[in-house]
Amino acid sequence: MIKDDVTPLRLFWLTTLSMVLILSQSLMASARGAPESFADLAERISPSVVNITTSTVVPGRTGPQGIVPEGSPFEDFFREFQDRGGENGAPPQRSSALGSGFVISEDGYVVTNNHVIEGADEILIEFFEGFELPAKLIGTDPNTDIALLKVEAEEPLKFVSFGNSDNGRVGDWVMAMGNPLGQGFSVSAGIISARNRALSGSYDDYIQTDAAINRGNSGGPLFDMEGKVIGVNTAILSPNGGSIGIGFSMASNVVSKVVDQLKEFGETRRGWLGVRIQDVTDDVAEALGLEDAKGALVSDVPDGPAKDGGILAGDVIVSFDGVAVEDTRQLVRVVANAPVGQTVRVVVNRGGETQTLKVTLGRREEAEGATPAAVDEPEEEPSKLELMGLTLSPLTDAIRGELQLDENATGLAVVAVDETSAAFEKGLRTGDLITEAGQSPVKSIEDLQAQIDAAKEGGRKSILLLVRRAGDPRFVALSLQE
Questions:
Q1: CA-CA distance, 361 to 272, in Å (whole number)?
Q2: pTM of the prediction?
């Protein structure tokens, strides 16, 4: 007969361990799972959520004006009415709009959406307790649709803090607050449906949620279950203008940095690397001999920080300031979040080997608008050589004139593109200029053919071309089997 050897001491520790596990699971459930009620959380944080009313003076409506015969007894009456309305015959009118926001400091800083207060002459903040205060605009960032306001209150205001939006997981519970459809303070709950959504901006990092968000919720907070703001409710996707369970909140890790800059400078100051980049696709990765289709491929390096730091066209940026680069969208965001003037380490893959370069960042806002404007595509020229769906010609003075190129420009002009070819599907068009093949300059048909032969001998299935259009470069990988 085998006896149970569980001693009283061991039994004590087993019981204690079980209680700890149960308590730990309970705490995790309360922090991330569905609560029995959202009432306690709503009651605690609702005083920090505000309604925002804006007003704007707009010109009066124009329209046909009455014509009164001279000498009519009504002549003076109509003249007085039209004079009150100004030249257009209608007095200026005041337009109102509603939105939401939230207080982030006891001294009265309020965050909302830029589109809520854009163009407003007056901004009025209504607090949960019922009192109202006028607000002044501190600064805006249209790129992330964020605005920072300030009110002056006699007493410290109740406020909420930003949380870490990167900690939010798909399926976590969240709670939205605001002023939907002008109906007054309202609470809705749901889950995070998706993360890292992009709508239209370079710096987009939206949290998608099914918590009900409608017009008027714009600028309101999205809370996690600890009462931290992890997003600013900004937009909905809807065929009818009402909530169908697809709402978007700008992630707090983006918003908090913007708010800090608006508070300190009254404007944003984003880092600028100074490169033109494109995603590394599977065929580009194969043409470059990369193991994975990750990173950001540098297509051009104009004068700026990157050029001063030694980055070259054709480099693949794989790491920025210690952060692995997955694609161009991520690189744009991490560069923008880096301080202006900071020297960072940029790791690039160049010719199959990695190099670490040091780049001192410039300011994005000062560099914007420097991209050359597009020009019309030139007419087709007589064909010279057909290759990979392209008809190519060496540059002549006539072609340089058509493409508005400098007299010292070199490369092969695309004078026709087969619309059934992969080259056409990848965006190559008549008027494009091919300046590199296999990351080597091409000045003639012979140069291009030599690079194609070298790629085939090296076992490559495609070749990487550097294509310029109106001065703007991009890399395109074309199959050598076509």
A1: 5
A2: 0.66
Tens of pLDDT, residues 419-469: 888 888 888 888 888 888 887 888 888 888 888 877 777 777 888 888 888
Kindly name the residue from 48, 100, 141, 145 that is annotated as catalytic. 145
Catalytic status, residue 145: yes
Q: pLDDT for 148-202, tens place per residue?
A: 999 999 999 999 999 999 999 999 999 999 988 878 888 999 999 999 887 766 7
Tokens of 257: 């940095």
Q: Whole-angstrom Cα distance, residue 423 to residue 434?
A: 12
Nearest-angstrom CA–CA distance, 418 and 426: 12
Q: Confidence band (pLDDT; 50, 70, 90) for 288? A: confident
Paired residues of 323 in beta bridges: 320
DSSP state of 291: S
Identified catalytic residue from 46, 115, 202, 327: 115
Give the H/E segment covering residue 124.
strand 122-126
Which residues are CB-contacts of 266 (< 8 A; sequence separation ≥ 6)? 138, 139
Q: State the catalytic residue, choosing from 188, 218, 249, 256.
A: 218
Q: Using one digit for the tens of pLDDT, what is the confidence trace for 214-226?
A: 888 899 999 999 9
Is 406 among the residues known to form the active site? no
What span, in angstroms and rounded, lies between the C-alpha atoms of 318 and 470?
28
For residue 53, what are the CA distances in angstroms to 99, 121, 213, 231, 276? 7, 11, 18, 21, 41
Q: What is the pLDDT of residue 3?
A: 45
User: Which backbone phi and psi does 81 adopt, to 5 degrees?
Assistant: -65, -45
Q: How far apart are CA 320 and CA 99, in angstroms?
A: 38
DSSP characters for 157-174? Answer: PP---B--GGG--TT-EE
Strands 462-469 and 433-437: antiparallel
